[in-house]
């Protein structure tokens, strides 16, 4: 199976994969500060990069697993740990470790359409990249499209 980006439905705890060309799902207002959570259900660490912002790494929390597989719907263990010593200050990339949720806090000040993605090139090319928008939709902005 391939690693993909998406969302965890807050009502059900179910992961929902999203493809590159699907509509923008992250759309902070200009000036908003948000906490984003990267849930990693894979066996690999993923360096997650958010364009146009710097962020602070807040913490990580383990996901409930059974026989090495993440329990779905998602459940958290309550085992929260602080950022690694080298993760203090502002970053633009954070390692999302397997079987954990990694939380970051960013302020979104520049309006426009940007991307967030895994910084492993093979993953970027394989649907591990999503568009996001800061502020209102710009009808003149480029629209995501399928490669092919």
| Strand fraction | 35-45%
Biggest sheet, strands in spatial order?
3-10-5-8
Instruction: Find the structural class using helix and strand composition.
Output: mainly beta
Task: Report, as a whole number of angstroms, the end-to-end distance.
Answer: 21 Å
> What composes the largest sheet?
4 strands, antiparallel
Radius of gyration: 15 Å
Element string (H = helix, E = strand): EEEEEEEEEEEHE
Number of helices: 1
Poorly predicted tracts of residues? none
The rough form would be described as globular
Count of DSSP strands: 12
Helix content: under 10%
On the 0-100 scale, what is the average pLDDT? 91
Summarize this structure as a short list of keywords or feature phrases.
mainly beta; four-stranded antiparallel beta sheet; 3% helix; 148 residues; single chain
């Amino acid at each position: 199976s391939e690693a993909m980006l998406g969302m965890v439905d807050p009502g059900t705890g179910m992961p929902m994969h999203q493809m590159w060309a699907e509509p923008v799902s992250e759309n902070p207002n200009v000036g908003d500060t948000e906490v984003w959570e990267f849930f990693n259900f894979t066996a690999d660490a993923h360096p997650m990069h958010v364009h146009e912002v710097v962020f602070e790494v807040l913490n990580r929390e383990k996901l409930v697993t059974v026989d090495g597989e993440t329990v779905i719907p998602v459940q958290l263990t309550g085992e929260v740990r602080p950022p690694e010593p080298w993760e203090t200050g502002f970053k633009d990339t954070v390692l999302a470790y397997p079987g954990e949720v990694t939380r970051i806090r960013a302020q979104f000040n520049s309006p426009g359409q940007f991307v967030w993605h895994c910084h492993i090139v093979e993953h970027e090319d394989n649907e591990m990249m999503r568009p996001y928008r800061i502020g209102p939709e710009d009808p003149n902005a480029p629209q995501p499209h399928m490669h092919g």
